[in-house]
From TrEMBL:
Organism field: Pisolithus tinctorius Marx 270
Glycosyl transferase CAP10 domain span: 334-604
Lineage top rank: taxon: Eukaryota
Keywords: Transferase
GO molecular function: transferase activity
Key word Acetylation present: no
A Pfam family per the record: Glyco_transf_90
Name of this protein: Glycosyltransferase family 90 protein
Amino acid sequence: MALRTKRSVWRLLFRSAFSLGFLWLAAITLHRLSFGSPPTHVRVFSVVDMSVLQQPQQHQYRNGYHPWNSAPEEHTYTPDGLLIVNPNGPHPIFELIRNAENEWNAKLQRASKTLEEAVVEYERRYKRPPPLGFDKWWDYVVKHDVLLPDEYDEIYYDLEPYWGLHPEDLAASERELEERDDIIVVAKTPESDKLEIVRTTVKGNPTAFLVRISDILNLLEEVEHDLPPLRMSFSPHDNPNMLSDWRIKSMVMNAAKRGTTVRQKDFPPIHTVGWAQGCQPSTPARVKRPPLPALPPHAYEPQFNTSAPKTFIASHRATMDPCAHPSLLVTHGQFLSHYAGPYPQKTLVPRFSLCATQLHHDIRPPVPYGWVSGLDLEEHGDVPWEEKIDERLDWRGSNTGLYASSNTPWSYAQRARLVSLANSVIGNVSILPVPEDENTKVGEPEEVRLARVNPAWMDVAFVGGAIMCDEKGGTCKEMEKMWEFRRSQGRKEEGRYKFILDVDGNGWSGRFKRLMTTNSLIFKATIYPEWYTSRIAPWVHYVPIQVSYTDLYDAVAFFRTHDDLAKRIASEGRAWSMRFWRKEDMSAYLYRLFLEYARVSSMDRDAMSYKGSSTVGEEDL
Ligand SMILES: *[C@@H]1O[C@H](CO)[C@@H](O)[C@H](O)[C@H]1NC(C)=O
Ligand SMILES: *[C@@H]1O[C@H](CO)[C@@H](O)[C@H](O)[C@H]1NC(C)=O
């Protein structure tokens, strides 16, 4: 915060300087000289630190020479995670990459190295001791060389609300949950060494669903005997279901912060339906909720507001928040499939689900679905960056997102919009010019006809035929008229592309791990933060794209020009996947999540907390 203030003061100073004339400028220069090293934002532009971009020859300017004719201007960072482009600044992607690399390196460097440091860091972040068993968890982390041992904020986001609910009410909620449909109950009893599936309410033949859950539990084979007694309910389906009521969520969050709990009987009754009930009343989702799109036969027509300022993702997690970005509620199958949204839950329901949005309080385990080792890349047809000959953005998939009937707005879901947009020859997009380097103003976006860029830049298509549609009602036919369904790509074919896009389907994208493991540069648009979200860095390991796709063509344009940066992120991404998304990394996450859940769901949370360091054992007290 202090830095922001200092920056904006300096920016103000500079603006005044140029409007009032040279005298001011001279005064500022003197001021700067007398201060020795220039303030941060000046350094960004006058002695550009290009070391992270590997262009050391551009480190310094000759004696007072400055490539900008007027004051370089800064882009604006909004609290909801976006960068708003200032045409008088450099191309924002340079800056986004550099900032992200600096933050990532700082994160790696400050990581705890001992159990004691990890305990201190835990208490600093979460204002309470770690869970019982934290020392054994730490042993696992050391033994398997798990990096970033402090970065488990996703567990905090999931479990913190439950700290504010009275343990008896949480237990009652769990018992009720076990009676609902499509639940798989997992338990470890005091007598057992193992986590076991003890009950299911999944109808029909549940085998495939049970496998999904046991695949998750298998991550803990090595350590499950060390886990405390536990009882949890899992959903084996693709989507989250537990919409939070903002009033309830704020009550439990406040209680958790004060170290107390509230009782369920004190929660306000639920009268109002809708996604926005998960949001604070002052947020955009409540204040100016966008209308639901018109129902088909009105097909989605790609239409960007070419006079709106360009924005890019600065914080991927923040841009996944539908309260701050209500357009997500009308452009993604997760939300569109329930129209304006369901009723929120009347209490917190501790269901473990394969993914969740920030409006849900489902608890997210790491999901090994689609996991690959990455050791046999070439066997699967991938080739080194230099051999990738296709510079179009590649995407293939099915038309998942929501069921297409005559009364669902299916053509507005994320995949439908993508395929319509990337194959349209009608309309324009606005694209930022791509300067050679960071010392050139980016300028105003330019209007380009989709008919020109799509064939050259995009290779995006549905495969097979229409699915999740109403044969009798005619929506399958409508889809097949609207889009060309192509054959699917083999891995070898996919390996030719430099740029591959990853988007959500019915739920989270199960192919991200596989894609990240390739030598291609991965673009990703999603509304689901996942277990690794605090353990990866957008712009260092992948390119974050807004669900609106308003930045998609800009990113493609940028990386087609800056091949060195594209190659760099592609290879950092693969290295990240190999080092930070091993089975052991998922295991360490799940192990810690279960220790935390065992504590928060117990009747005596204090007794289930870790008691000090190994040097102050119970015998010493
Ligand atoms: C387009 O963007 C401009 C600038 O932000 C705004 O004033 C205008 O209302 C927008 N138009 C539409 C149709 O949303
Ligand atoms: C689309 O962009 C082209 C320039 O590429 C321009 O000539 C044309 O007027 C634009 N069309 C619209 C509808 O704005």
